Amino acid sequence: MATYYQNSDKARAAIAPREASEPVNELRGLIKKFSGEIKLALPKFMESDRMTRIIMSEVTKTPKLATCDRGSFFGAMLECCQLGLEPGAGLGHIYLIPYKGKAKIIIGYQGMVELAERNGRVTIDADVVYERDEFDYCRGLSPNITHRPFYGGEDPGPIIGAYA
Predict the structure, then answer these.
(1) pLDDT at 100 over 90
(2) Beta-bridge partner residues of 161
(3) C-beta atoms surrounding 100 within 10 Å
(4) Is the pLDDT of residue 51 over 80?
(5) Distance of CA 155 to the CA centre of its chain
(6) CA 43, CA 45: separation in Å to the nearest integer?
(7) Which long-range contacts (CB under 8 A, 24 or more apart) does 103-112 make?
(8) Percentage of the residues of the chain whose pLDDT score is greater than 90
(9) What is the pTM of this model?
(10) Neighbour-count burial for 121-151, b at 16+ CB within 10 Å, e otherwise
(11) What is the spatial distance between Cα 122 and Cα 68, in angstroms, rounded to a whole number?
(12) Distance between CA atoms of 78 and 1, rounded to whole angstroms?
């Protein structure tokens, strides 16, 4: 049996969407006002509107960011922009983290790979070495890895190492 409320505060409260906290709304508004700085800090291949929306979404997902020192938050946000890395778990490039009242960034391994590949002089490869694989490496001025996986149709044996 449904309850019907006519023009009452209780009815409006029952169907109204939950509002984000005041600090979150305030910070989201400041981010919007700061969108011109975001555009200036971003590399040319990134869209400022997209980055602004992503950052506002991160604040909504992590409300504690809204309680961080504003200078540290906007500094961390601009660092994300300057590096050209999108914050959040979506791509795992970089994370905006509240820590002891300050906003910090942590670059994820996907972000490290992105930056290295964007540089153009680095190729990243990683693999697992099994007991029956042919594997050799040489360190020094000309480091080299030779890895020929075992394809004998049998069990390659247990994992004995990994490299990147």
Answers:
(1) yes
(2) 129
(3) 8
(4) yes
(5) 38
(6) 6
(7) 103/65, 103/68, 103/69, 103/72, 103/73, 103/75, 103/76, 103/77, 104/72, 104/76, 105/76, 105/79, 105/80, 107/83, 111/83, 111/85
(8) 69
(9) 0.65
(10) eeeeeeeebbebbebeeeeeeeeeeeeeebe
(11) 36
(12) 53
